[in-house]
Amino acid sequence: MCDATHEGHEHQHQHDAELEARARPEEFRVVITGKGGVGKTSLTAVLARLLAKDSYRVLALDADPQMNLPYALGLPHDRARALVPLSQNPDYVEEKTGARPGSGWGLFFRLNPDVADVVERFGVVGPEDVRLLVMGNTVQPAAGCLCPENSLLAAVANAVSLRRGEAILLDTQAGVEHFGRALSQGFRHAVVVTDPTFNGVQVALHAAGLARALGIPAIHLVVNRVRNDSDLQRALEVLESEGGFPFATRHALPYEEQLQRSEPDVGPLFDHPDSRFLRAVGELRDALLQVEQERWRHAS
Q1: Over residues 208-225, mean pLDDT
Q2: pLDDT at 133 (0 to 100)
Q3: pLDDT, tens digit (0-9, with 9 covering 90-100), for 258-297
Q4: pLDDT band at 15 (very low <50, low <70, confident <90, very high)
Q5: pLDDT at 16
Q6: How confident is the model at residue 187 (pLDDT cuts 50, 70, 90)?
């Protein structure tokens, strides 16, 4: 038999759980950017799997021409190799824009094609039920490519920004300008990744400036592959000497030998829950959610 005190505790636990559920952001959009080779894709994959383990519906977008995110997430190599990026899918490009890529100059095509079906048709499900969509490369129209495949990818970025109830991670090549203003319509966080090198920090500062120019409100710094305190200190000194930046949060990820051994697949890392790297990415996840939660509270 339950006494009144026990019933009171049960009621309080239920009440706290309901408050936590209401306070938890249902969705948020994160761009991961930085210099090539600093670990953006591995970080994207680990963050995606951590969010999925935390019961989020996760959509991971691979917008890096190297297309390594499928391997990092742990898709079997034969499945990963068989994936065709949207920008290289001429049938879908023609279906949606009315023009086939490479058909020559003077094409007439739809600038705002309806691509609401893109994730359902071309998204693949990986470990932890993370949904993956490989977008492929694109060139800004301002740089001289007003073409059907560019129109399609811009529409995909817009369509994704309207999806609800998902945590969406976008792994990009260096910089965030490749999808232009489409990013600012839904992506609210940019995670700028660097290693403890002068060049890496310079590119990170440039990417952070681009993210701010696009209207992304929360820009976070991640210094990856930190072996010791002097590595982190050097990166921060370079950051300040180059003018600094008002990052929303700053994070240091330790060098992780397990990632090097299992590269490109991040899956084996989860067999080591005591990993300092895994804990550090977990802290980054918590910081992103906290910033989004605060933004959501202020908005409501």
Answers
A1: 93
A2: 95
A3: 998 999 999 999 999 899 999 999 999 999 999 988 877 7
A4: very low
A5: 46
A6: confident
Q: Return the amino acid letter for 253.
A: L
Written as six digits, the tokens of 173 are 């090549």
Q: How far is CA 193 from CA 23, 62, 156, 174, 259, in A?
A: 28, 16, 24, 10, 16
The band of 102, judged by pLDDT with boundaries at 50, 70 and 90, is low
Select from 90, 125, 126, 82 the least CA-distant residue to 109: 90
- 3-class DSSP string for the chain: CCCHHHHHHHHHHHHHHHHHHHHCCCCEEEEEEECCCCCHHHHHHHHHHHHHHCCCCEEEEEECCCCCHHHHHCCCHHHHHHCCCHHHCHHHHHHHHCCCCCCCCCCCCCCCCCCCCHHHHHCEECHHHCEEEECCCCCCHHHCCCCHHHHHHHHHHHHHHCCCCCEEEEEECCCCHHHHHHHHHCCCEEEEEECCCHHHHHHHHHHHHHHHHCCCCEEEEEEEEECCHHHHHHHHHHHHHCCCCCCCEEEEEECCHHHHHHCCCCHHHHHCCCCHHHHHHHHHHHHHHHHHHHHHHHHC
Where do the domains of the chain lie, and which CATH numbers do they carry?
26-299 (3.40.50.300)
pTM for the complete prediction?
0.85
- What pLDDT score does 99 carry? 82
pLDDT-above-90 percentage for the chain: 55
Peptide bond into 264 cis (omega under 30): yes
Q: Exposed (0-12), middle (13-18) or buried (19+): which is 98, by Cβ within 10 Å?
A: middle
Q: Which two tokens stand for residue 107?
A: 């094409």
CB 269 within 8 A of CB 256: yes
